[in-house]
Amino acid sequence: MRDTRPIPGGESAAARHVAVSYSSDDEWAGHLVAFVRAGLDGGEQVQYFADATDPDRVTRTLTEHGIDAAGAVRRGQLLVTTAEETYLAGSGFDPDAMIGLWRQAVDGAAALGYRNLRVIGEMSWGTRHIPGAERLLEYEMRIHHEVFERLPLTAWCFYDRRLFPHQELAALTSAHLNRSGAASPGAGGPALTAAPLAGTPGFRLSGTGGYESRRVAAATAASLAASPAPSLTLDLSDLNHLDVAAVADIARAARRRPFASPVRLLNAPPAFHRVLELFPELGAGLEEVGK
């Protein structure tokens, strides 16, 4: 059931889910202070999910920049927790559990009288060998529709360029429709990127996908299968090519969806169309639209 709570300021889902990447401690502090100050001044609850950063350093940095962090913590307006208590609660990372946690967190902030919830989440745990960490890209793609289009939540995903391989960072930040300081998906970036669509349920694949892009294609397939939207579009307008294995992943995901309507393939390129012609069994659950 869709949540109908108003979004403060009327900001779009894309504007409230931001990938923030940085290369130095000073950059980290600048993003932190600006985000927290805006939230506290605006009567919002602010939370920080620390991972690579010591939680005490978060409040100390805020205090050094003139923010009464101790007072905000005492009155419950500022909470500094850890990835282990949020993203990794349980035996590892589970996108579905994390989506449920966002709903609980928003409800908790509202129960305390705050008009909105603002969160910074450090994503550095995604670089470690943690069960479920390989699903981080799927999660970033899904939450645009499943969280930010439904809940009064603003979240900045903190990506430290010093910790992430360049191509992995570019794929993850490209899954956000709003980026600050993000690594460009251009030269040196991944051959294939995926992102949610703005304004309509679905996703977009761009570039060329082969063996080296299997994680991006797999995340797209998983996002299609998990989406609660009865009707979905997969925009392929900027796609050059996908290998047969990736097309098969997407086809299987479309068939797993519990809805009668097929996944709409918008502007599938000739190479994608040829794969479906060669393997017509893959077309079940898919509908080509557009030229």
Number of helices: 10
- CATH homologous superfamily annotation of the largest domain: P-loop containing nucleotide triphosphate hydrolases
CATH topology of the largest domain: Rossmann fold
Query: How many beta strands in the DSSP annotation?
Result: 11
Strands of the biggest beta sheet: in what spatial order?
3-2-4-5-1-6
Main sheet makeup: 6 strands, parallel
Rounded to the nearest angstrom, the distance between the terminal CA atoms is: 34 Å
Fraction of residues in helix = 25-40%
Given as residue ranges, the uncertain stretches (5+ residues, pLDDT < 50) are none
Query: So, CATH architecture of the largest domain?
Result: 3-Layer(aba) Sandwich
CATH domain class of the largest domain: Alpha Beta
Along the chain, the helix and strand elements come as HEHEHHEHEHEHEEEHEHEHE
Instruction: Kindly report the average pLDDT value.
Output: 92
* CA-atom Rg in angstroms: 20 Å
- What global shape is seen? elongated
The chain-level structural class is alpha/beta
Strand residues, percent? 15-25%
Would you mind describing this structure in some detail?
This protein has 291 residues and is of the alpha/beta class. It folds into two domains: 11-183, P-loop containing nucleotide triphosphate hydrolases (Rossmann fold, 3-Layer(aba) Sandwich); 191-291, 2-Layer Sandwich (Transcription Regulator spoIIAA), CATH 3.30.750. Helices cover 38% and strands 22% of the residues. It contains ten helices and eleven strands. It has helices at residues 13-16, 25-41, 55-64, 69-74, 95-111, 136-148, 166-174, 214-226, 244-256, 270-278, and strands at 17-22, 45-50, 78-82, 117-122, 153-160, 178-180, 192-196, 202-209, 233-242, 263-266, 286-289. The strands form two sheets. The chain has a six-stranded parallel β-sheet, with helices on both faces. A five-stranded mixed β-sheet has the order 7-8-9-10-11. Helix 5 packs parallel to helix 6 and helix 6 runs parallel beside helix 8 (214-226). The protein is elongated, with a radius of gyration of 20 Å.
